[in-house]
Amino acid sequence: MSEGPAIRITAEDLAKVTSPAGSSPGSTMTAAIPAEGKQYGNIHSQVESAAGEEEKKRNLFLESWFYLGVAGVIGAAVGWAICEPAFLDFSAAHRWGNIWMLPAIVTFMCLGFGLAESIAERSPRKAAYRTALALPLGFVMGFVFDFLANLFFSVFVNVGVSLGAHDFHNPILWVARALAWVVFGIAGGAVYGIVGMSSKKAQYGILGGMLGAGIGGLAFDPIALGLNHGGVSRGFGFMLFGFFTGCAMGIVENALKDRWIFVSSGPLAGKQFILYKPRTTVGSQQSCDVYLFKDQSILPEHAVFEARGNRIQMTARGQVFVSGQPVRSRVLQSGDTLQIGRYSFQYREKTRS
């Protein structure tokens, strides 16, 4: 039997050949989907684009400095509006408006700080619980810290007078007020941490509150002198005081955080959750530290983050993907992308030297 002519394959023939790997979504070359799970979008593409996603997807309204600053403004405005009608300028009379003004402002600022995060997270139950806790705490701390602030203010004013300051046109007395009002920031930060059930959150809140309250106190007298109208200048000055106090609390908290998860997709996209506690719960139950709503596939307590020394151990009770892979337990690494239902998270750690 004679052989046919030899088949020759040239380099040009090879160049014309195309790979069928991407020919169809159902091709056997496609990565397998775990049998137990639903598909939650293209997880691998999210992993590839994780770098810098936190910065690109930030949401102003879910930034702690913003909503705490707004809460401080509203709280201060409510306290001032209640007491201003009964407040007397340049009077020795002990009117209730004069007595209650600063305690009322501190009370409603504390209430605002306690509520702000619950509102941002859209958790009515947390908001109700924190209102019940923040209101009495703010009321008590308002009077306690008002007494301390007045005491310090008297001392600092006497020091200012001894240095030659005879009225509030002198910046020395502006500094005296700022130093005295720092104590109001302690009240706001303490309540913020107490309702958040975290001692570290309270520490950051107190530090930020003191800084912001001092700035607000420093600005109060120049505003009063500039507007030259008792009631209006007081109202504007107190609202600015509230804004600076809340805003500084959020800025300090953000600057000092060391471990957090950032929501990159889902209804809370743009929100970060700082992992303060030894044990942080995630789920569809409103009592969870990270409350995930509008997704029936998420369990009441879907996952738990536990601090193990300098690391965070994630334990899943429902379906969780980490960097595209389904996992039940994992020590998280900075940069990991987590998928829980319709929510995507990026786990971050501050770089340690």
Describe the protein:
With 353 residues, the chain is α+β, with helices and mostly antiparallel strands. It has helices at 11-15, 43-48, 53-56, 64-83, 96-120, 124-162, 171-195, 199-227, 230-256; strands spanning 259-265, 272-274, 279-283, 290-291, 303-308, 311-322, 325-331, 337-340, 343-349. Strands 1, 2, 3, 4, 5, 6, 7, 8 and 9 form a 9-stranded mixed β-sheet that branches.
Summary of the model, kept short:
With 353 residues, the protein is α+β, with helices and mostly antiparallel strands. The chain is built from nine helices and nine strands.
Supply the key terms.
single chain; 353 residues; alpha+beta; 9-stranded mixed sheet; 9 helices; 9 strands; 51% helix
